[in-house]
Structure formats: C-alpha cells, structure tokens
From TrEMBL, chain A:
Residues spanning the signal sequence: 1-17
Matching InterPro entries: Beta-barrel_TonB_sf
Keyword Signal annotated: yes
Protein known as: TonB-dependent receptor
SUPFAM superfamilies attached to this UniProt entry: Porins (SSF56935)
Alphabetically ordered keywords of this record: Cell outer membrane, Membrane, Receptor, Signal
Single GO cellular component term: cell outer membrane
Entry's localization field: Cell outer membrane
Classification lineage: Bacteria, Pseudomonadati, Bacteroidota, Flavobacteriia, Flavobacteriales
From TrEMBL, chain B:
Protein name: YtkA-like domain-containing protein
Biased composition (Polar residues): 237-249
Highest taxon in the source lineage: Bacteria
Species whose genome carries this gene: Algibacter amylolyticus
Start and end residues of each stretch annotated as Disordered: 229-249
C-alpha cells in the first residue's frame, strides 16, 4: 500500500503541477488522477498529427504563437510577448540560449519523445520558476515510475514528410524496476529545403537534428529517490532563410541530479531538490551565403549552474508549494569578421561581453478551497537578480556611464478566484510583477535583427519592467460540449523595446541603422480567446478556437508581433480502427500592424489540413499508421510573425508509423 | 551505481570539450598593439665633460611622437647637471644631402623630481641607407656651451595608433599631427591625445649650421581638431561610432578628445583642423552614409590606425 502511494506521488510530482490536490486524498482518488495524467502524458501530439515537433505541439496551444525565421527553432510567444518576457524551463531548470538573435529558444533543445507534457502558465501565475511578465512554459520530461507491472516499455516512430523530404526516426525505451528506473530516448530528423505555395524552393530552410536523453532513478528508501537526467542535443546545417546567416552547429547538454523525499505524516508532503548544469554552444556563420562580400561568424556560449528546491505542503483545505530557485549563467557571444578567408580575421567584437546573471528567488503558490465550489489561488515571489558585464567597455560606448554590476529586486504577487456553479465556471485574477532586462536588452552589442534590419544595443541601466495584470474567464459545460472564454489584460510599465539611436552607425552588412533598447513609459496588451467543443455524434467531435489580441505603446501605436484575429477549427471522426481529422486554421488580415517597429501588413490566409490514421497490431504490439496533408490547397502565405515575410510551407503530405512495445 | 558513475564521467568529458574556442580578447589586443610604459636608454654620449643619456619609451626612437628624457651627468664632478639650459635639435639629412628638422621641443625643461630634462620630437621618417638623423644638443653650464651631435636611428612605428601625418594647410603653413595616446586602444571609449605642430618659416637668412632659427617649430595653439572615426574596409560599409569628442588643447599643449572604437580592426580617424577663428586649415567632411561593399571614403586629412 505504502509502495503504491509512493509510486503515485513520484509519478504525480514528476509529471504534473497539479499534484497539489493529490497527496492526501484517498488512494482511489489518486488512481483516478493518474488515469487523467496518463491521458495527458500522451499529449505530445496534436489531433491532426501524431508525430509533431515540439514547436508544432506548442503551436496548438491558444496562447502561444511563434516568430519563425525558417523551418527550425521557432521562438514561442506567450500571450503575444517574446521570450524575454516569459520563463521557459525544462523540469524547472533554467536554460538560456546561446544565440544573440534568439535562434535557439530552449524549446529547440528538446525533442517530442523526451517530453511528457508542456505546462503553460499565463502571467504571474507562472512566476514560481522565476520573474516573468508573460508567464511560464515548463517542458516536462518523461519520467517512468518505479515498479510498473510491465517492466520494459518502448516506442518507435518513423515518418516521412514529402514537402521538405523530412525523414525522422524517434525511439524511446524504459525499464521500471522496484529499485531502479532507467529510460532513454534517441531521435534524428533531417529535412531539406521546403517549398512554398508557389512550389518554389525556399533556400536555406534545411535542418538536421539529433537528440538523445537518458534518465536513471534509484529508490534510496521507501520514501525517497535519487534521479539523474541528461539531454544531449545537436543540430547542424540548419538554414535560416529569413536571416543572412545559418547555423553550422549547435550543441546543448542539459543535466541534473534530483533528490526527492516524501513524508507520510505532517503537512510537508514532498521535498524535492535538484542541482543542474547545462551548457549550450551555438555557432552561426554566413559562409553558406557566397553572395556576402564579408563573412561573419557569430559563435555564442551559455553556461548555467542552478538549483531548485521545493516543498509541497497540504493541510485540510490548504495546499502550498514553496520553491527556492537559484542559478548562475554566463553568456558570451562574439562577432568575428573576415573578408573571405577565415584566418585573415580583421574585426572582432563581443555581442554579449561575458555577461553573468545570478538569480535567487523564493516563491510560493497556494490553493485554498473556500468551499466545494470555490477556490482561491494566490502566491508571490521575491527574487534578487545580479548582472555583471566583464567587458563593460563595450556597453560604455553607447552608455558612457553604464554600470558594470547591477542588482535588482524582483517582487511578484498574484491571486485568483475560481467559482463553479452548476455548469458554469467563472474565474477572475490579478497579478503584479517585475522582470529584469534580458542579457541582450541589458548588454547586447550590435545584435542584428533581420526583421526590422537594425543593429540593437543594450542598456545596462534599464529599469525593471513592471507588469500589472488582470485576467478572467467564463465557461459553460454540458455533457456534449462546452465553451470557454478567456481574457487577460497587461499594463506594463517601462516596457522595453528598441528605439532608433541617431548616434549609431550600423555594423552588420545588411542593417540600416542602430536601435537602442529603451523603456517606453508603458504599454498595454490584451489577449482574448474563445474555445468551444461539441460532440456532434458519439464518434464525431468538433473543436474550435478564436483568438484576438491587441498591443499598444504609450502613444497608442501598435506593438509589433501581435497576432491578428485568428481561428482554428477541427473535426475528428473515429470509425472502428480508423480515425479521421480535418482542420482549418488561419489568421485574418493584420489590421493593427506596426510600421514604427518594422512591420508591414500581412494579408489573411487559411490552411486546410486533413489526416487519417489506422490502428493495427503487429505481433500484439499496437501500431498506428497515419497519412495526412497540411496546407492542402497549397496556399502561398506568410504570417504576421514570419521574419522577412518568408513564405511558409506549401502543401505537405506526411506519413508516420508508431509502434508501442 | 556504476552506471551512474560512468554516465557522470562521460558527461564531464562531453561538457569540457568545446567545439569552437572562445576568443582571448585581452591577448588579442596585446598582439596587435604593444603598450610601452618604461623609459629606457636609447643611447649615451660621453663628451669631455658630460655623460648624456637619452631615454625614450622602450629604448627606441620611433617615427612619430616621442617623449624624450635627457639625463646629464658632469663626469668631472660625477654629479648630475641640474637646471641648466639645454637645447635639443634633431636634423635629418636626406638622399640629396638636404638638411631639415622635425617638430621638437628646442628648449628642454628640467624636471626636478625626476632629475632629467624632458622634451619631445615628432620624427617624420625612419632612418635608412639614405636618410640619416642626428641631434644637436647644446648644454650651457656656467656660461660655457658644450655641443654634442650624436647620430640616432629612427625605427619604424609598427603601432599605427601612434601614427602621424604632415600636410600643408590652406594657409600655406606646414603642419604636423601626431598621435600620442592611446598606445593600445580597446573596444571602448578611449582618450585620444594628439600633438599638433607647425613649421615656423625662417624670417632671416641662415647663419652657421645648425642655426636653430632655420629649424623652428611650434605647438599650434587654440585650434580644434574635429574627429570622425570610420572603418574604411568595404565590408564595414563606412561604419562609425557614437559619442566621440573633438580634440581641444589643454594646458600641457597636447590636444585631448575621445574616440570610441566599436570593434577591433582598421579605423581611419578623419580630421578637420580649424583655427581659433573657426577657419578650416585642412580637412574635408566625409560621407556618413552606410555603404556596405564600398570602401569608405577618407577625408583630406586623416590618420589610419589598426588594433
């Protein structure tokens, strides 16, 4: 009995943030929860496509949109805010990309077969892992529990996509013993250039990605376990059609050691401490572009050491998580130029002049059940953020009095109230929080942004960005379906954005001027989404989403990268061993675009997709075969957030096969 | 447990191997430009009554600006000669045997604390098989004048940050601009020091050689040197930097300004020299356009540097 409880707890806490309610309830309830979580675990696939990349999976969430510079490593925007404003973690570990141009968001260093789920928190509710404005995206790794009845589990997935000749093989296996758990995954994807809706090849859109992960857990006692995890990711020959350069190699090693202790009695339920280390190297260069007279290498390195320790408490109607987070990151990026021959290097500068960021924060998130029907959530954090620029002379060129060291205090608070009345669900909430400028915003030096074609200069003495946020949602559910409306509004003080510097002279070959990161007095952002689902027939399900957002600066001008009115609607039909899906998604014409920040108007587009799958058994192993097509009408389009208006992929027929052992 | 140990070991090996080496920035700056701070002996002249030691940075006289220290010892009394009148006149003899000089401090100033005479010279060319330099030093001690004229060697200045230029101004006068500092700039805000000199055309006929009145130079006073630094290479597209300050004269006679170098490489310091009435003595404005692929245009008056 005890064993089961431990197992359940382990399972729950490794997998889900929803474990707070689970710990003291009866075992029956816990088992129910597990079923739900197990269902959730399979969700690194969309209804349309079972072999999705992490990016494609994230794209199916209604508060995530993407900036795309090619076919690879899309930058996720949460609540229409870029990655400086959100916290992206892997199992709570901070990882920072090594590319000054944000060509390696954290999501590019994992693969769908080493993830169990992705936990997205909007706004200050995501402040548990660190200071944020937009919210948090936590990529949760797969974690097998101890003593499963089926000791060995494995899955293999392969597929081919015809548009860009993408061939992928993903495999993972796990062993679950009474005392020891071992699991691993390995994957390789290789894609060539894709073709747009006019059947023209988009040059420099190929990629090649290898990813592997390993996890070992050892049960040190009935109530404790030690776990070691590692992910190694390597991408090479990745083209970025929207940029003047490509990625020759990127590597990431993400490691952690965690010790978890459960407590049977008392209000402390779990204490989980993790030490982690990760190193990222990212080498961009433009030798693949012979048209450039001068060549530039832009290597970057990012190394992070960190610790996260959390305890979960529960007493009667009150549940709480308290977390201590600390990390130390060193970010280095260089610019090296040479006319044609790399050995004849003539020019050099740091685009990140050895910038150290140290953060320590204590945060808490609490739930109080006022009644069966209503619930109060509240929490807060206090963080200390310290920056040090080793070669501060680079920063002092534009900001002569720039300080070499900077310490900031980052408080945050949030509260929400949730009420269920019969079939209705209502919630309201609010939040307040600070964030420190990112390394680029604070210390970046001639970072070329090919969207507006400006070189960006950081300012070490920028003020903290302060966010005030309100959110609300209302839902109605019946047995056959439901509808949910969600809205949030952010008022962001000292909003950091690039403004043209008249003093500067561009450095990068293709740039037109220099922008400095400055603080606008304020900016506001409004996000709205409407989700509906309905079971038309027993096996015919409909789902739809509509999103709208608006962002304004202090002069009531539009902010850039705000998604226009967009929709997604899909039908899913199951017939015996067959499943059929079809979906439409698209954006309306971008009305509120922002010429001040380099945007032009993007026309509307619609994508029609369809897929079919068939489930059968080979030697008793469940096998699913899927075939489908994306952008069936071969529409030529680019979205509001496509860098340089590069066209998206045209018609793409995809196939995949998955076997579970 | 062994497996864990093994994994940790493998991870450690992977971590410590970086594919591409980071640039050692400090080392890179030093290899391009060496900064000399020690004054060392260039040569010592032993005359009947005196031993004269000439000292300069790194013990070498270079083309361009050189601060010069003279230590004079009375070999009779074996005491150093303080507070005397010492003059210093460099003379160059070219391939045709023509003699001329270069900007220099004729009357050396005695530095009480350090016990030497200080001056400077802006040597305008290197010594070679056809170009010879010598100096004429007159020491007046108790009304008695001793003259020595050692030959000296002027070495090539490899550090372009101490480069110089000579030109004829719009007023017909002959001018010299020599960079004095920084010897070893960095990607940062650098204090830029330059000496500006002019040749004083002789008003009388030459007397007995060497007649100092024929080789007279003076520090240009109260002018302004407007500065526009740019990277001339085609790949840099006429790149410039912000927050630079024009050079103005300070009490030591040198001109002080601020130059910002945004990256290492070749830079051209474009100058416009203006007199106290704001008339342009020399120099033209250069284009401020960003022109990738085209070699940056240099102004009429400029000095090239590299670091």
């Amino acid at each position: 009995m005890k064993g089961i409880t431990v197992l359940i707890l382990l399972f729950g806490t490794f997998v889900s943030a929803q474990n707070l309610q689970m710990q003291q309830d009866s075992v029956d309830v816990q088992l129910d929860e597990i079923v739900i979580i197990a269902a959730k675990k399979k969700k690194i696939e969309t209804e349309m496509k079972m072999a999705v990349s992490v990016d494609e999976f994230l794209a199916s969430s209604d508060n995530i949109s993407f900036i795309k510079r090619g076919a690879y490593a899309w930058e996720p925007l949460l609540n229409n805010m870029s990655t400086e404003r959100s916290i992206i973690t892997i199992d709570g570990m901070h990882v920072f990309g090594a590319c000054t141009d944000k060509m390696d968001p954290v999501t590019s260093y994992v693969e769908s077969n080493n993830l169990a789920e992705i936990d997205i928190q909007s706004g200050q509710a995501g402040g548990l892992n660190g200071a944020t404005v937009a919210g948090s995206i936590d990529l949760k790794r797969k974690s097998t529990s101890f003593g499963l009845s089926k000791k060995w589990n494995a899955a293999y997935q392969t597929g081919f996509e015809f548009n860009n000749n993408q061939f992928f093989n993903l495999g993972n296996a796990s062993y679950s013993g009474e005392k020891l758990v071992a699991e691993g995954s390995i994957s390789y994807r290789k894609a060539e250039n894709y073709s747009d809706g006019n059947n023209d090849e988009v040059n420099h859109s190929q990629y090649d990605k290898f990813n592997t992960s390993l996890g070992l857990a050892y049960k040190t006692s009935d109530l404790s376990a030690l776990r070691v995890d590692a992910i190694f990711d390597k991408a090479k020959d990745v083209g970025f059609p929207a940029l003047p350069m490509d990625l020759s190699l990127s590597r990431a090693l993400i490691t952690s050691v965690a010790y978890k202790q459960f407590f049977e009695n008392g209000i402390v339920k779990v204490w989980d401490t993790k030490l982690y280390f990760n190193a990222v190297e990212h080498y961009m260069d433009d030798t693949t572009r012979p048209e450039n007279l001068v060549h530039m290498d832009m290597p970057g390195w990012s190394t992070t050491y960190g610790m996260v320790s959390k305890i979960n408490l529960k007493k009667e109607k009150f549940a709480s998580e308290i977390q201590l987070n600390a990390y130390d990151n060193l970010s280095i990026a260089e610019m090296r130029m040479y006319p044609q021959d790399r050995s004849e290097r003539t020019m050099f500068a740091f685009s990140w002049p050895w910038v150290t960021t140290q953060y320590a924060g204590l945060s808490t998130s609490n739930t109080y059940d006022i009644s069966e029907k209503s619930q109060l959530n509240f929490g807060g954090a206090l963080g200390v953020n310290y920056n040090y620029s080793k070669y501060v002379e680079f920063n002092r060129i534009f900001h002569p009095s720039a300080s070499q060291e900077k310490t900031r205090f980052l408080p945050s608070l949030h509260a929400g109230y949730n009420l269920d009345i019969n079939q209705f669900n209502l919630s309201v909430g609010g939040g307040y929080g600070h964030r420190a400028p990112s390394v680029s915003e604070g210390y970046g030096y001639y970072i070329y942004n090919s969207f507006d074609r400006y070189d960006y200069i950081g300012n070490p003495d920028l003020k903290n960005e302060v966010s005030y946020e309100v959110n609300a949602s209302a839902g109605y559910k019946t047995k056959k379906g439901g509808i949910l409306a969600k809205a949030n509004y952010f008022y962001i003080q000292d909003y950091i954005i690039g403004r043209i510097l008249s003093a500067g002279s561009p450095m990068n070959y293709q740039s037109v001027g220099v922008k400095g990161y400055t603080s606008l007095d304020n900016a506001t952002l409004f996000n709205f989404s409407l989700n509906g689902k309905y079971t038309v027939l027993k096996d015919l399900h409909w789902k739809g989403t509509l999103t709208y957002a608006r962002g304004l600066d202090d002069n009531k001008n539009n902010l850039p990268f705000i998604r226009p009115l967009s929709y997604q609607t899909s039908l899913h039909y199951a017939y015996q061993k067959f499943g059929f899906s079809t979906s439409l998604n698209g954006d309306y014409k971008q009305i509120n675009y922002s010429p001040e920040y380099g945007e032009d108007q993007t026309p509307s587009y619609t994508n029609w997709n369809a897929s079919a799958n068939y489930t059968f058994y080979i030697d008793g192993y469940k096998t699913v075969f899927q075939v489908g097509a994306e952008n069936i009408l071969n529409e030529y389009y680019s979205t509001y957030a496509d860098w340089g208006n590069i066209p998206r992929m045209g018609r793409n027929i995809f196939t995949s096969l998955k076997i579970n052992f | 447990m062994k497996l864990i140990q093994f994994t940790v070991f493998v991870l450690f090996v992977v971590v410590t191997s970086c594919t591409l080496d980071k640039t050692d920035y400090e080392a890179e700056l030093v290899t391009e430009t060496t900064e000399y701070i020690e004054y060392e002996e260039v040569t010592a002249i032993v005359s009947e009554n005196y031993t004269i030691r000439i000292e300069a940075l790194n013990g070498t006289l270079y083309k361009g600006y050189n601060e010069i220290h003279l230590k004079i010892n009375n070999s009779q009394t074996n005491e150093s000669l303080d507070n005397s009148e010492v003059t210093f006149l460099p003379i160059i003899t070219d391939a045709n045997g023509n003699k001329s000089s270069c900007p220099h401090a004729y009357n050396l100033v005695y530095n009480d604390n350090e016990g030497y005479y200080t001056g400077y010279a802006v040597f305008t060319s290197e010594s070679d098989s056809t170009v010879h330099w010598e100096i004429y030093i007159d020491i007046t001690d108790n009304g008695e004048v001793t003259t020595v004229n050692p030959a000296i060697t002027i070495a090539e200045q490899n550090n372009l940050n101490l480069n110089m230029t000579a030109f004829t101004g719009n007023d017909g006068e002959h001018y010299f601009i020599a960079l004095v500092a920084p010897q070893s700039p960095s990607v940062s805000q650098n204090d830029l020091l330059a000496g500006i000199y002019k040749y004083n055309k002789p008003t009388s006929n030459a007397g007995t050689f060497p007649d100092a009145s024929q080789y007279s130079y003076s520090v240009v006073k109260n002018h302004t040197l407007l500065l526009d630094p740019r990277m001339p290479e085609p790949s840099m597209g006429n790149h410039s930097s912000p927050n630079n300050q024009d050079l103005t004269q300070e009490s030591d006679g040198l001109y002080y300004g601020v130059v910002n170098y945004t990256m290492t490489g070749n830079w051209t310091l474009n100058f416009i020299l203006k007199n106290e009435n704001d008339d342009i003595i020399k120099g033209t404005e250069v284009s401020t356009e960003f022109t990738p692929g085209i070699e940056g245009e240099k102004g009429e008056l400029h000095i090239d540097i590299l670091f």
